[in-house]
Each structure stands twice: as C-alpha cells, then as structure tokens.
Design goal:
binds flavin-adenine dinucleotide; 3 domains; alpha+beta; Uridine Diphospho-n-acetylenolpyruvylglucosamine Reductase, domain 2; 22% strand; Uridine Diphospho-n-acetylenolpyruvylglucosamine Reductase, domain 3
Length: 454
C-alpha cells in the first residue's frame, strides 16, 4: 500500500511508537518469527479508551488498523497504518457464582486458567497457554474439551468492541453484530473485553502417548478406528513428526519419526484407562504420561513449542476419516515427503456440531475431524512451503468441506479471499460482507482473514 506520512499521533495513555523508536521492534515481535507487522504507528493500549481513541484517530486519517495480542495468529501483516498492541490489557475478573470471566484484550490462556482454578473453575482454552484468549475465541476456539463443551465462541456472553466509527459498543446475544464478530477474527473491530463462561472442571485425565518408527502408521490406524465411538467427554488429537537430529533435542527423541496422541477426558481415571487400552495395544510407547492432572497442568497435554518460531500451516475440515484419507496424508507428510512438517488430526464432532442460539459465524459444523500440517524449519522459502502444504492439503480434497480459521498460519495466498471464503458455509460470507459494508465500509480492519465490504 502507499504509506501515508504521519503528522499527528494518537492521544492515548499507553505508549506510542514509530519506526526507529526504541521499543518499536519489541512491540511488533510475537510468537510468529517468520514475519511481523510493519506499521507506521503502534499504540500499546492500556485501557479500552486507548483502543477507542486510536481507532477514531485511524478513521480520521483513513489508516488501516491491525491488532496484536501475542502474534500466534498473524495472517496478513500490516505494511503502514496503525497497530494496536493489546498485551498490556491483562485485567481478568471472575464471577465464581455466575461461572463467568470478564477478560481484557491482552489476556493469555495461562493467566486465565490460573485465575479460574482458584475458584474451582476452568476456561475452554486450547492447547497452548501463551495463546491470546480473545484471538482464540474470535476464531471459534477448539479447546482441550471441545467435544464435550463445543466451540469457545459458543460460550461468550458479552462483547466490548470498538467499531470503525470509533464507538465502544457493548454487544449482547441478539445484537446484530454479536454473531458476526464470533468467528471472524478482527474483521468488525477491536474487542476490548469478552465475558465468557467458565466450567466446573478441576482435574482431567489426560496427557500424551508416543509411538515411534514403524508404529506410527499403526498408531494412526488405531486412533482413526478408536475415535469412531469414544464418548464426547474425550477429546483427542494425533500428530506425526520427525524430530530434528540436533543436540538441542532430548536424546530419546533425536532424529525419530514419532506419533503423538494427546487427549483429555473429564470422566474417572478408571474409565480413562479403560478407554485408552486399545491405543496402548499399538505397542511399546516412547512416552506415556496419561494421568489425572490438576487443570492448571493441562497445557502439558499437547506439549506445544513454548518459544517463538517461524511456521506456516494449513488445515482442512473433514466429515469422515476413511483409511484412504489417512494413507494418503501419511504418505504426503511422512519422513520422505521432502517437507519437515508436524502433521495430524484433531477429533471434532460431539458438542462442536451443536449450534447455540446466538447465531455465531463458526461454520462447517458437520466436520468430524480437522487435518493439519504445520511447517517446521528447513522447508525452504515461504512460497515453497505454502506450495508444498497446498499439495498436502489436496491429498484430502475428496473428504474436505472447508477450513478452520484458527489453524491457518501464514500470509500470501494462505490468507486470500478464496481461503477466507472456504472458512464459511455457502451464504455466510456474503451475509458477513454486507454487514462489513455497513459497519466498516472503508475496510479499516483488513489486516486479517479479510471479509471485504460488499
Ligand atoms: C502454539 C499454538 C497453539 C494453538 N492452539 C490452538 C487450539 O488449541 N485451538 C484453537 O482453536 N486455536 C489454537 N491456536 C490458534 C490460535 O487460537 C489463533 O492463532 C489465534 O488467532 C491466536 O490469537 P492471538 O491473540 O494469540 O494471536 P495474535 O496474532 O495476536 O492475533 C491473531 C489475530 O486475532 C485477531 N485478534 C486478536 N486480538 C483481537 C482483538 N482484541 N480484537 C479483534 N481481533 C483480535 C486479529 O485478527 C489478529 O490478527 C494455536 C496457535 C498456536 C500458534
């Protein structure tokens, strides 16, 4: 885009940065290190009023507005314009009696879990503690207990959002924008806080089983058959990856091709042990830490990488998972595939199928699985990696119904209009585009998986 010369800066209580200022690089840095936003102005928002004043300022100058909490879900990077960094907005208020939390824009999952467990409650968080609660929820939010409780976005009670006209709106279910905001990322404005449900869960039975080498295909086949009739109280995922042969890796993992089955179950330990028996029958495990754990430790289930790195990823939602699909996927992603990837499936279905009354914009509810492929270092240029990931994705096209927005990482054609349309059912994108024309006609909020105003 043509960069506009900035002659006036927004008036906010939080700090303001321009390129060259000390602190600018720290503000754009995030979990994704492959690329970053490159805004002309950054506001480190402290309060909702900072967000409101910044959006009003941007609108007055016709500048696009990007938002970042952690950088986990960076898609279309800003090149100029304004970036609102929400990481200083960390307020959490729990209402234990109502079983709700009011969560400000910069809160990460780990902080919310810590606050909730104090009250014998838990949020519907995903696999990593460092993901932002708001970005995760605005993309639907597939949690550790997703099959039992459904999408995190179905459990939102109120939304505070600054829209392109510079108004801070308080949305409730039934308001026109409420259902549009949930499922569309930052397309309709900057959310300053969400009020969300908490659940009365204090422990889960869960952890990870790992199988290596020749047992990987057997583990995948066992998991595929097993997921056909496990209860909704059990949510699981399988990943397949070759650990790099580098000294930084623990000796036991180095250079090995491994399948990881991560799961969480809210029933008893005895029932959990009984349910996982067919998986253990696959053979000797490289690791097996299934146990009853306090919810505070739930981030250990998936063992997501804790440190920032570069990654690109695609996913496809599937209505079924026949052996033909897993065979094709395994061949396309295995150690001889030429692209270092973490490939795998998460089991969906259960409560994820059920739509709540708020009419949120999370679609493809008939999906029973999501297949994912995430690049690891060493795959080549971003374009080459995207090309290979697209080929992997094509192997599943006979069973594919669309994409999940949260598990798409990377810019370019991985965040274009075709990809974005494939997130929604027929008709949803056009309805959202009409609302976008009403609430953000100049498309100020376009640094995301963009819904273009009609
Ligand atoms: C290691 C890892 C594990 C993950 N695990 C899961 C999982 O288990 N389940 C799942 O569903 N997803 C998961 N995700 C995906 C994650 O939920 C998305 O990437 C999400 O967008 C991250 O939000 P963020 O705020 O942390 O990231 P950011 O990069 O800071 O934000 C991503 C986007 O979210 C939007 N956004 C963020 N804050 C606001 C706001 N206040 N107002 C408006 N828009 C906003 C913007 O469009 C922004 O570009 C995971 C991602 C990673 C990298």
């Amino acid at each position: 885009m043509t960069k506009t010369a900035i002659t006036e800066l927004p008036a906010t209580t939080g700090p303001v940065f321009q390129p060259g200022d000390t602190g600018y690089d720290a503000e754009i840095a995030g979990y994704q290190t492959g690329y970053t936003h490159q805004p002309a102005v950054i506001v480190g928002a402290v309060h909702a009023e900072d967000v409101r004043a910044t959006v009003e300022y941007a609108a007055r100058h016709g500048l696009p507005v990007a938002v970042q909490a952690t950088g986990h879900g960076l898609s279309v990077a800003a090149d100029g314009g304004v970036l609102i960094n929400t990481r200083r907005m960390t307020d959490i208020r729990i209402d234990a009696q109502a079983r709700t939390a009011r969560v400000a824009a910069g809160v990460q999952a780990g902080a919310l879990i810590e606050a909730a467990v104090e009250h014998g409650l838990a949020p519907l968080n995903g696999s990593s503690n460092s993901v932002g609660v708001i970005g995760y929820t605005l993309g639907g939010g597939i949690g550790l207990l997703a099959r039992e409780y459904g999408y995190a976005a179905e459990h939102v009670r109120a939304i505070d959002i600054v829209t392109a006209d510079g108004r801070l709106r308080h949305l409730k279910p039934g308001d026109e924008l409420f259902g549009a905001v949930l499922g569309t990322g930052g397309n309709f404005g900057v959310v300053t806080a969400l009020e969300i449900d908490l659940i009365p869960v204090t422990t889960v039975y869960g952890g990870q089983l790992q199988f290596e080498g020749a047992l990987v295909p057997r583990a995948l086949e066992a998991w595929r058959l097993w997921t056909a009739d496990v209860p909704e109280q059990l949510t699981s995922a399988i990943g397949m990856l070759s650990f790099p042969d580098i000294p930084q890796m623990p000796e036991a993992m180095r250079g090995k091709y491994v399948a990881t089955i991560s799961l969480a179950f809210t029933g008893s330990a005895e029932e959990g042990e009984r349910l996982v028996a067919p998986l253990r029958e696959v053979g000797p495990r490289l690791a097996d830490d299934l146990r009853v754990m306090p919810y505070l430790e739930s981030h250990a289930i998936h063992r997501d990488p804790p440190t920032p790195h570069a990654y690109t990823a695609t996913n496809v939602l599937l209505t079924e998972l026949p052996a033909d699909a897993t065979d094709a996927f395994l061949e396309a992603t295995g150690p001889d595939s030429g692209l270092p990837v973490v490939a795998g499936f998460r089991h969906l279905g259960g409560a994820l199928r059920r739509r709540g009354p708020a009419g949120i914009s999370v679609d493809h509810r008939e999906a029973e699985y999501v297949a994912r492929a995430i690049s690891m270092p060493g795959g080549g240029t971003p374009e080459a990696v995207r090309e290979r990931l697209s080929q992997i994705q094509k192997t599943l096209s006979p069973w594919t119904i669309g994409h999940n927005p949260n598990f798409l990482y990377g810019g370019g054609d991985f965040a274009d209009e075709a990809q974005t349309k494939a997130i929604y059912d027929d008709g949803t994108y056009d309805r959202l585009a009409a609302l976008k024309a009403e609430y953000d006609p100049r498309n100020l909020f376009r640094h995301n998986r963009n819904i273009r105003p009609l």
